[in-house]
Amino acid sequence: MSEVRLPRRGTIVAWTTQGFPPGPPYLGPTGKDFVPFGVGLVELRDGDEPVIRVEGRLTENDPAKLQFGQEVELTMVPFTKGDDGAEIVTFAFAPVGN
Question: What does the alpha-carbon distance between residue 10 and residue 51 come to, in Å, rounded to a whole number?
């Protein structure tokens, strides 16, 4: 097995919005604190060559602002707070230029 560095940018192949809290082992906000979020299948490329497709959270949850083929870049976003009050972050893909 060897380490492979993946590109940080890719394009949206498919997407949807998650309008309800996921089931276990999800530890994020629930109930009135839950905010719907986008989920996308993103194709990471090295130049013109596809490397891999990954599913991940999107920073955008407005369907009017998401489109197939849209360029996105990996970032980190706040997710929830731990039992000790410390912020927990997660990875997400953000539209390029936003």
Answer: 10
**69 Cβ contact list (under 8 Å, min separation 6):** 11, 12
Which tokens hold the place of 86?
Answer: 């410390």
Count how many residues are written for the chain.
Answer: 98
The helix (H) or strand (E) run that includes residue 80 is strand 71-81
Q: What is the pLDDT of residues 6-58, one digit of tens each?
A: 999 999 999 999 999 999 999 999 999 999 999 999 999 988 889 999 999 99
Q: How many helices (H) and strands (E) does the chain have?
A: 0, 5
Most distant pair of Cα atoms in the chain: their distance? 45
Residue type, 31: G
